[in-house]
């Protein structure tokens, strides 16, 4: 039934490549099938003005797409002179999601900036960015510990994210572009490793959806996020 | 328990004032307690470029806050030279929510722009904007019908919105600022009049939240939105 | 002769509503007939960089119009990415006019920002903004005195403003939109309560105008501003 | 009494150099003492969108200052990314003033853009721009007639401009920077050659000013503008 | 002598990966040692306004760096609201260089946009962008021919580019970051496959350089560019 | 053969007018035939943030063109809201070139900003800006010495610049607009007074050019720059 032939509860092939680029404190290439996002975590020894002197850190994210990451070329935002509304919305979501997994007090007065740059898009770029971004963040934290900058991990729990939706009347996990562009409902879930919710963003694209449909989508999402957090942990463990 | 003394499932005093300003095709002042938003619907006999020649209409929304609608003055966005990320995120949410209640084919090749301007803020400005904005939109549609421009209503069902959250461990309906700024979880719900979902946006501000908490919040939201849609209908009925 | 049936020297119905919104230190809704402007004065305990350390204060103003305050919708300036030339010109005029009524040394090292937001326009929004803005400023000053922050009023004299013009060959007071859009000459006057001039801005829209016409307009303006300053004082006196 | 030793009703040495640059249809360097402004009029065979198809022309102006035209260097506006409020205000004034001297119907469907660029500033740059800008405009019109593009002059009457003010209690004509920066009142006058008013912009810098003072300033301005219009005519006559 | 141990006339390991991303008409990842640039060529069936109706095509380029492609994080240009001066300078150079290898008449009324995005920087990103960008362009042209859109190749000759410089008094080929940041002179060469010049941009970073030094650098560049054009041809030949 | 009738190695009439405007520390009007550029050097007693506390100075340049310095009017960059790519490229070139002639340590912790504003363009504005800008810079330095701010000149050697090119197959010196717009190759040279290179920027406009052609152009440039540096020295010597 699905264009890709996947089961309704089946993720695409997901890989996380550690140390994809050499300069960042944490660098991960995450691939969900044909969706590919470079996630680079940068540690900066300062905090934004509104946090100065409060003995706590901050995590923020930025998101971008290469102009030809998509089927038809998008205008380069740097050239257009501003980030579009969709970009702004996504990078705020990524930032909130990543912060939910970290104890800001234990991070200390420093900022981790996570850049998520989509080099090829095939649906689900924001959830891939959160999942890959958290892995990059965790790598950067590992190195702060290895260097003795931090003595204790500020990570409270892993954070993963996946999209779910209703496609041709059926709840499915991890929509690719062919599904996403025709789905009746699209929901992005961000969860902690214990299955509790960090963000739920569900949008009826055509018809409103029922509580039963929402619950079915949530169940799929919980399953998928468990698998994704497993992959994050494998990557960190050095596989 | 609530700072306002309200019951956990009790809305603030909500009023919708019809024809609040004189130029707009549909103008409503909506008040949720001390939160006051002017919602003006404008009908334009054209559609955005991406819809030209497709025999369908469009609905879009813009959102703004007066600089001193808040406790401390915010910088005027027109002066800053751009709309902030929060503004962009909110106006995209309002637009999607309003479109979900209208049949674009029946609207014909015209655009309705709904401007939501907050003149006083005390929590819940985005959900008030959706609820008041839909009322303004419905007023504008009524007049298109009265003038014979439309022969049939393009409205599929009413759309209402309210916030719910977890405050001091308890699920509550319609958070005011005192609650919102301390809530563990904040969820904005947009629903159709039959209780189905149009948008769910839940964010864990402190701890992740459980499925049980989410379900409790959703039940509160369904009750509140039923009441709000009743108020929209009363206003249109001319009370 | 006038579209509204008013006498040539007659103001529209003018009302000033005290404490229109709850957050600002001084908040006034001013109405000149169908022209309605929210004037909010904010006190900030700092001065612009060019005044630092000079033991004096500053007063500045910003002006905006809701997109649908006018007959056809104007583009939102925050969305356009800049304030238009007319907006800039008006807010500079408001700022200069308000400063002319206040002793900056007695104000001390603080800034009062006066936001004038037009929610409904029917001509004369800039003069209504000055008149209402001065009332909001005076309210904020009253509260600084009541709180003991100031021991002496920095207000030198009240400041009021009105438009005058030549309409169908006749000098008239307080042009509404129907007159303004057809006037041969349009003049904005700002005066102190003793009848002296703070700003005169006269523009020939069609023919140049003579000294006799200018003097007739000035006489009308002096009468109107006397009445407006009376209304400001009534509002402050608590009517 | 005046820093320059001039009489109260005496202009600075004023010169208009015809054809100062070679590309513009009308090019004039105007000097008021040490204030020097290049005024270039460009004829474009099109009108702004709001005038299309109305068988009439348009005149607009732009104003700029070289960064080091002033005593301390100003930031280059092109680099700052926007024109400042003062610039916007001035170029709108120049545009309105020039339009007041021309019959837009007789100009035909074309636009004359007048660029006024200050290369050295010593007070009175906006009034010099109007006076020099009108001369450049008149030159461009002469050439449209000479080329047979126009058969009749669209010029209704010459337009000149000068500043007047109250300096140390005395009304004076044509303030230079030393006076302008210390004047109690500063008024910019734009007049037609018959002495009637096109624009009056008077601002109390310190004390409000009286009607008597205003009338004295106006009388000085009328005298000065007569002289300036004489100089415009001499330049056009080919002196 | 060189930090990398290379000979003075030795390129870094250079690889060109064909079809690196899936959406672009021509996609190449070029690596010069640790410098990695994604070059994507997009074919658009339109030309810029200044070329409309002239029966010829256009080639343009855009350049960007991921924020953490460098050792310390750079601000994201989309977020800063404009492209920096260095970016603008580089993308103009890339565009001119690519155009020099193509017959615009034979290309027909279409545009090829080449996006060069640096994912990891270690010196020489602009010359890598030109060399990789030309390869991506050639791939896109091949496909236009394969699809029958073009019947004849518009490519006049291959274009390659490399940097040369004076490092510790010695002319060297293909500077990496360790050399580039300490070089006395830095020269970017763009050449056709017959060894003639398309662009020469030489900059003395410390001392001015002599004609002898320039000639030595040019000889190194000619050798390097021959090798690079060989690699482009191998990639196209399908190796 | 040349449109102007000049010899292939002949400069246009070049003049440098000292103290062209009165406010700048160094002000020069440079004319290359009909190309006229005002070059103003401003001394500021501060350095950019990246140089603070390093006991050295900085030199930077800005470049602009009056809108009607050209045959058809260009849009004013301040109005467009940003500097175009060509402007950015040119002002970076001017800045680098001027810095190459000055010892930043000897300049001390101050910045010299050189503004180059083209009032009339006829080809070669960037090379005229460098040549005139260096003269203005040298004037400003002379005055710093005269005032005792500097005890020793920080100037290492004079810097001059000229364009050369291939016009109708022949290498020529100092292209005017008629040549520049039809040249096969255009090269801008910046040299020190000893004939060594500071910048070489050669661009093939049509065909790539050979090493022989480049060497012929360089020889012409060396001759021209020698003459230009002679004129700079004459101007400083007070002729």
UniProtKB/TrEMBL annotation, chains A, B, C, D, E, F:
Pfam families: RNase_PH (PF01138), RNase_PH_C (PF03725)
Entry protein name: Ribonuclease PH
The keyword Thylakoid is annotated on this UniProt entry: no
PROSITE patterns listed in its UniProt record: RIBONUCLEASE_PH
Annotated organism of origin: Hydrogenovibrio thermophilus
Subunit structure: Homohexameric ring arranged as a trimer of dimers.
Family, similarity comment: Belongs to the RNase PH family.
Function: Phosphorolytic 3'-5' exoribonuclease that plays an important role in tRNA 3'-end maturation. Removes nucleotide residues following the 3'-CCA terminus of tRNAs; can also add nucleotides to the ends of RNA molecules by using nucleoside diphosphates as substrates, but this may not be physiologically important. Probably plays a role in initiation of 16S rRNA degradation (leading to ribosome degradation) during starvation.
Molecular function per GO: 3'-5'-RNA exonuclease activity; tRNA binding; tRNA nucleotidyltransferase activity
